[in-house]
Each structure stands twice: as structure tokens, then as C-alpha cells.
Amino acid sequence: MLSGTSYDAVDAAVAELAFEGTDLRLRPLGLHTEPYPAALRGELAGCLPPAATTLERVCRLDTGLGQFFGEVAARADAALAGGRADLVVSHGQTVYHWVAGTRARGTLQLGAAAWIAEATGLPVVSDLRTRDIARGGQGAPLAALLDALLILDEEPGAPARGALNLGGIANITVRGADGGVLAYDLGPANALIDAAVTEASGGAERMDTGGARAARGTVDTALLDALLDEPYYRLPPPKSTGKELFHADYLRTRLRAVGRHPAADDLVATLTELTARLVAAACREHALTELVVSGGGVRNPVLMDRLRALAAPAALVPPERFGLPAQAKEAYLFALLGFLTVHGLAGSVPSATGAGGPAVLGSLTPGAAPLRLPAPRTAPPRRLRIVT
């Protein structure tokens, strides 16, 4: 389960996982999504950067998120697993990702796991990013492992393929020149678009639904050039970012600095073009011929059309070709990571996050029954197979 940087809903993907020799088999059973209640989303928005908050509000939010995640988990188990689930894996809701220069120093995901365990009676794996940071990594993107096992082909003559997730932040996974896995946050995908739409509509709209505003608008090339001059984009990977940097105040500051005040739809069109340019630059840098695209951004036809045009000759490929729905891929990622955790296997990829070594991720909260873990595995899987 997770709620991403757009913090609009909780996604719960249900899967059956099992080892088959050196492979890991995943059978998707479906995705259950529930939007945040308006009051809870409002509390969350009031705690996120650049807003100031208090420990009291953080405590209340941690409880409220944990209770809602627990309710969603219980309903997903009943609807998609027939009440037979063995384990819940909760990424929770990121409220702060602490990056100083090129180092990640800490990360905070709320949604107390004890409430999930109480609601479901199941053990819960949570806090999946901190261990990688403790080993010197960025704690992100964690998608590198799933992408490496499922999407990035090592066979001679295979396409130069990358995997892209378009959430609030855009992140990419590729193979580096040495064949190792490289993954990093490119910059904003929906984060700044959502901020612009929310402000323009007075909060009545939270996203550019169907890319309607971008389609009506015209790209402000002078503003686009100024936005592309963000120092983060020039940092070498591994690197990670979030709404600690790319938020509404960041956008207002940039607009004031360049003296540009475009109409709302023109601003959204410019921010959409910004994301497409960042992705296209990465495709050129890594000489990609295929890009597997997932996340909420795939529902924006204007963004996808610009990606097709600018990323060429790299072809955009849906993750459904590999057996996972575009909207559910990240939720299945966390199911995979939690499954590895309870088997004593690392879920991080040091070449992607910059950590000093691989780490078994997360903390484990027992459920209603005595905690019984499976026998530890001695070797990580070499491939992920999706069985439908």
C-alpha cells in the first residue's frame, strides 16, 4: 500500500508471491484505491512543505493516516484476497524527505503501522526507506529492484530500455554504462502542475484532469528556460528530491525572479513541457530505445504526447506489456519489497540509491497471531515473472 507525492488516494495492490527456483513469481490479484477523506487530506496538506506545523499536528496526522490505511487494507483484503492475506506492506505517506546537498539525511513516512495491524490482524512491514539512508543511500527510488528484475533486459541485442514513473516526482531506472542499475529522481512530474492548478482554481481543482488546461495553454518559452536552470537537474545521480523543493512557493519564487506571470493555462502548459523535457534529456543521455511509463501521469494525454515527440527515437511502452497495470505498478513494488523483507532478503539496489551495501528494508509490526516468519532465503531472485 502507498499514497504518493500527489497525496490524493491510497492504493492497495493484492498479490500472491512465491519463489520458483531462482525466479520470483508474482500473480496480481487487483488494485483497490480509495481517495483520502477531505478532512484528512486537508490535514495532510497543512503539514506538507512549505507549511509550518507542530508536533501535535504531526501526531494527529500519523494516527489519522494509520487508521485510514488500516481501513483500506482491511477492505482490500476482503475484496481482492477473500480475507486470506498473510502480510500487509505499507509505504505510508511521505511528509518529508530530508536531502542536504547530495546526501539524503532522513525521511519520514506517516501512517502508524500499529493501526493497520489492529484493523487487519496481520503483520505489517513499514518504514521501507530509512535503512537504505542509514547505509548512505538516498532511500529512493526503490523501484529500481522491480525494474531490474522485470523490465531492464540484460540479453545481448536487447533494447536499451528504461522505466519511468510519473507521480508527483518523475523517477527513472536504466542500466548504466557498466551494466549496473542506475535510478534517480529527474524532477517534478505532477508536483508543480498540481500546485499551479490548485492555486488557479482556488482549490476547486487539484490536478490537470485529462490535460485539459495544458491543451488550452501555450508554452512560455522564456519561463521554461528559466525553470530548466534549476541546479538540481545538474546534480549527478544518485539523487532524490520531492515536494520539499518542488512546491507552490518554489513556483511563485521562480515566477517573481523571471518577471513572468502567464495565464493559468499557459503556466500549466509550460510545466507540462518542463516534465517532458526532463524525461527526454534522460532518454538521450542513456541512449534509450524504449521507455516503460507508469504512474498517474500516464492519464495526462498532453504530457504523454509531448513525451512521445521529445523522447523519440525512444518508444513509449506500457507496463502492461510486462504484466503489470500502469496505475498499480508502484503498489506491487511495495508488495515485492515486503515479501523480500520477511524472507530476509535485501530490497535496495546500492548502485541506484548510492548506499554502501544492500539492505533488508523496513520495520515489522506483529499482527494478532504470534509472529512466524518464513525460513530465510540465502540468495536473491534473479528474475521476476508475472503470472496472470
From TrEMBL:
Coiled-coil regions, chain positions: none
InterPro entries from the UniProt entry: Anhydro_N_Ac-Mur_kinase (IPR005338), ATPase_NBD (IPR043129)
Keyword presence, Transferase: yes
Domain of life: Bacteria
GO MF entries: kinase activity
Enzyme Commission designation: 2.7.1.170
Broad EC category: transferase
Keyword RNA-binding: no
Keyword entries, A-Z: Kinase, Transferase
Name used for this protein in its record: Anhydro-N-acetylmuramic acid kinase
